[in-house]
């Protein structure tokens, strides 16, 4: 859907640009880590890209767990007003 | 003149009462009664000052030395109760004229003032006297006049007559029991003077007559102070009496009965007999705890607020008796300080109810809808009083509860302490019901024109409620005097 | 005279004038009150004042030390910003309630003894409920009632604990209550009761639901006030009384974790923020549990930063609710076109709470995480890292995304009123400033120091020794990794359609246990409570008839005595029976005893 406003997020291509930018940024962050001196507290932190992988996996896990939780506790909106 | 100070609070209102009848004119009678009441208040204030400074005051009537003559004897406890009774008496009477204008027929006003003064005389006399038969006489004076006062409510509803009659029958039974008790004691000791009797009474291995006398006295007094389960005369009497009468009686009459109980247990029979030889402490504790819970629960279901407050009074009597049943300084302090705090709180609440009765013509909960918006000042006073009943901090009720709970913990009875906290919850419920109706419901249409109560009625109402807040923050006077009175009472034990 | 006033008293007394004022003058007074109170606070020196004797016990109404100062200061800041945000409201009840609420929270923080704390504790409970009731809807009334019962219940527990504690120790002073071993199990019942009271107000797991139940029902401006005071007062009380209690680490960890799952699927965005509030409290509670100078400072710093960014988020969602009339994610979207400023402010709040570098959450949360890492508590540390990713999910992305972006719901409205924008603008600026200049604006004011013998509250004369550097390259890069990869996960999940759609719904939480018994069946049948009361009534009727027949049988015997009694005197008859029963009982007792 072409939009008159070039900045509008209604335009799918603008959104795509943003998302790809994000991917590139993430890709850069992992090697950048090794340019600096590291001072980890725990052994796991030494694993390359630990924080990135951790953030990604945990995020997905939380969302999936939320979907499961919905099955257990979701009710009609007027549940308490019957 | 000052040498006669101890007798003046009795003589002055007693003489003024027949004068009111002679005057007949209601304004003159009012002026006289007001002057007398406030003068009595001033005298009791001086008396308390003197007792605190010089110790127990005695006065011998007609120069007949005790134990033959009648002796008036005022110690810290009696001076304290005297001050409460006369203070409430004066404040409520100041409030009275506008309220009875609506509730009592004009040609009966002078009779109201007469009965009021007589009742005040009786209540003060009970507290002041050191003679048992004299105590009975004053008890009858106050009771008979209060029957008359309650029946004045007949102008509003005929039920007042039944209520007064019920109270009359029950009150008479109570008084008779007390008289029987006193008679038996006289038979045992040959004296009617309290101090003399205390010295002569052989409680350790005397005949069983003492037990019978003690049983009659405890039942009789329990009836007069409306201790559960002998309370059922009270709700009717408080509900149907004129507002002023309810406020006056609720704040003074049961309190004076508690004073009589204290006198008998601590001065005459001694706690060692009542609590160690006999199981009175257990009996009182059980009855008061059951009373607190039953009466508070019943109060929750009342539709008439005066009746609800009456049931709350029964529960509050339970708190006072509970304090006494601990038989410790802290417990007694709690009982005595609650005697005063509750007098202020309940007096103030019933005065506020009088304002509602004047403006709404009803004390039914259903008629209180939205009254928080129509009469905000009166309702605010009611809420403050209600908070005091619950025992919310910064009110006098909290001070009482604090002492009660501390006393219970001192004895290691944390279950009692927990029950006390739970009972406050019940109070919160019945107070909340009124608050909800008054603030969260829209006013009834027929009350659209309702105005705030007249200032002359609001001032005494706020005087009592305000005092209950002041004594919640500033406890050195109320709790201090109560503490000293409690210590004196317990010191008497050998 | 004014100098001897306890902090907060200016608000408490000044609020009573509000009903007499109208319009702009009222608004001006509303702003002036916190400002005056702040000036007053700044002028007060450290130390104890306001000695007051109640029942021969010495109370200390005011204790000013560096711990109460930092909480008192941020409470003033929050009161001022919230008042500015609420400036357009023409509802005196709300203003009075808000000022009393804020004032009593300040008073509580400066209370030097437990009894004074309790009094303020209850005032906060009672005044704050009016912010919920002011929504003036049926459901807000009920939610407020539930909120009030729980809050007052916390007060009753506190009072019980205080009474027992006083009975055991003879002291009412409010200092560290937990023993030096930090074990709650070996503490006295009194301390446990107080802990429970604090825990309710701090929304511990399973004691938490008043928060998610009550806050979303409050008025637009009321929620902003509510988010600042109650729970942070509890955090303060825990830090003062229970620093180093080991159990708090696990409680806090649980608090950071469980709300994130509820927040994912919640549709009401203000309720999402309430869950998020719960999660943030968890970080602070962990900090208290760890109990080192750095972790406690982290708690204080995090509370400070949190009050601001959480207030900012509630303000932005409030603005959305105020302009659009709804706060359901399923009905919002695309609002960035209509409310660009609000969008930016909300995103600053979101960046702060997610702890992006250069924002306030980053510099405060790092303290707690570093303190945990210094103690080598790997499980806790990983748990907090999971929670950080969770914060990113619900507060960092979900809130701004569903309100302002996502699919355009077609709502076109005005930008928020000027006073809301100003309040949000100042708060947003503070969030960024604290994030950029942490040492001067936050670290230099932190209250705890390590004295070698233990952690103590810093006296005015001692300069702080905290030299924590949040902006190391390692820390910045790893944090960015965590947050940006999480964002990438979000992008992938949304674009692949796996991300759960927003659905109009109610999610059950622990409030179900006390709400379910009052609910009827879907087809209009009676609720369990109704069935119970019907059952009790039938039972009573049955026993009544049973007892009555028995009584009638006895009555024949008694009737002889009471022949003259008419119907009216029935109760007299009953009473006389009672009198004789009691007399007999007394006599029997006495005879048996002697």
How does this model look, in words?
The complex is a heterotrimer of chains A (82), B (494) and C (594). Chain A is 55% helix and 2% strand. Chain A has 82 residues and is an all-alpha fold. Chain A has 2 domains: 36 residues, no CATH class; 43 residues. Chain A starts with 11 loop residues before the first helix and ends in a 7-residue tail after the last strand. Chain B has a domain of 207 residues. Chain B is 76% helix and 2% strand. The radius of gyration of chain B is 21 Å and the shape is globular. The two termini of chain B are 36 Å apart. In chain C, strand 1 and strand 2 form a beta hairpin. In chain C, 66% of the residues lie in helices and 4% in strands. In chain C, helix 11 packs parallel to helix 14. The chains are: A mainly alpha (82), B mainly alpha (494), C mainly alpha (594). Chains in contact: A-C, B-C. Chains A and C meet through helix 1, helix 2 and strand 1 of A and helix 10, helix 15, helix 18 and strand 5 of C.
Beta strands of chain B, count: 2
Please report the two chains with the greatest interface, counting residues with C-beta closer than 8 angstroms to the partner's C-beta.
A-C, 50 and 56 residues
Helix/strand structural class of chain B: mainly alpha
Give the helix level of chain C as a range of percent.
55-70%
What integer value in Å does the Rg of chain B equal?
21 Å
List low-confidence stretches of chain C: 561-569
Q: What structural category do the secondary elements of chain C indicate?
A: mainly alpha
Q: Radius of gyration of chain C from the CA trace?
A: 28 Å
The largest pleated sheet of chain B is described as: 2 strands, antiparallel
Helix/strand order of chain C, N-terminal first: HHEEHHHHHHHHHHHHHHHEEHEHHH
What would you say about this model in short?
The complex is a heterotrimer of chains A (82), B (494) and C (594). Chain B is mainly α and 494 residues long. Chain B has helices spanning 8-23, 26-54, 76-103, 109-128, 132-151, 159-189, 194-200, 209-224, 233-240, 243-269, 271-277, 280-300, 305-325, 329-360, 371-374, 376-390, 396-410, 414-440, 455-473, 478-491, and strands at residues 57-60, 71-74.
